[in-house]
Amino acid sequence: MEISALFLARVQFALSLNMHVLFAALAMALGWILCVFRFRAWKAPDSGWTNAYRFWVRIFALSFFLALATALPVLVEFGTLWPELIERTGNVAGPLLAFGLATFFVTKSLFMGVVLFGQRRVSAKAHFFAVLMVALGLTFTLFWAVVLHTWAQAPVGAGLIDGRYQVYEWNEIILTPFVLWRSVGFVAGAFLFAGLLLLGVTAWQALRRPLDDGERLSFRTGLLVSACALMLYWAAFDGNARMVARYQPAVAAAQMGVWQSSAPPSWVWLGSPNLPQRSTEVYWASEFNPQRWLGKQADASVAGLDLTGELLPPIVLLFWLLRAALLAGVLASVLILLTLLVGFRQGFEPSRQPPWLLRVQVWAGGLGALTWLFNWNLSDLGRSPYLVWGTLLQQDALSDVAPVTLAWVLAGAVATYAVMLTGFIQMLWHAARFGVVPVRKPGVRP
Fold this sequence. Notes:
Blueprint: H1 5-43, H2 49-80, H3 83-117, H4 124-153, E1 158-161, E2 164-167, H5 170-174, H6 177-206, H7 213-247, H8 249-256, E3 267-274, E4 279-286, H9 315-346, H10 355-362, H11 364-380, E5 386-388, E6 392-393, H12 394-397, H13 403-434
Antiparallel strand pairs: 1-2, 3-4, 5-6
């Protein structure tokens, strides 16, 4: 069986993009959590907030530099895998990428060093300001990336003239409801990932030794951040589904498994899309009508996949990713509700949590990462088979590279990213095991 160059290019680009957004989202959310830790430590220098900041700033720094390292392959692959993409969308993508890169490097150059090495060398006020600016810089950097990613799925505000997109209204590109909901969903998923990571790490520590004040404060912060992020997560999930139905009705029909526009749809919990027969084998369904998340025709009937023609989105992947994202969100919600219930009854101290619940919480960090990746791929794969929805097919923008070359590059990328991910997990485990190491003040002998 011969694997096509197009398939290998898709897998390579998706892998690089997944690794980048995973660490970028974590760094952004941890940046804002560190703002809270640093502000509280500024107001109460001898409290546990200082230890909480010093522990999590190490995880933030690792996430930050891994996000930077994984961003470089993505930028390179734009030109090596899809040379036609930049050629045709340069008037839109160029300014947005420039804004994002400028914001990132200004943040890194001016404030990152102060955040990592200046806590004992500048005033508490100046250090808090640096942490705040880093969080703001990362947020704006990711916002421009979300705008570009959303525009590729709903190319409004620009017209295709002589094979190149020409911008006629930047407000329509940046300030659409789709961008709003995608941004909310990005933020909610990132904070859910970070909050569950805080919860999981401190639960692991609580199972092995008594916690210090900083670790107990980290546990409470992770619980609060996760609870707030989940409320935002479900609102964003609904908002994004409605935007997909509005701008990409074929993708919405694929997610729901709706083929026939004339038949009244039902919610399929478990099923199997059958591409040759253009139908969905239903194993478990309910009477809930999913019309809210489906596109509409002029007569207000739902738009099914029968209106799409031969250019179908990846139906099986989208169908299961939607249900995986829902299941992961439900599991995270149940975990947080149980933790809150125990906390209200026995107090929000990790030592008062039942051991079985602490063991479940240990896996919360992995659950947060999976929830984030499910939702990201649910939105990203909605572009296929296009790079720019409705106009630029992936196969038309693919570079002329032999499949064997792409296979070797993909193997190298898999090995590199596996080393990065393994190193991140080992560093996190090492930091969780030993906690905050006391640091000697400048000028004081040991």
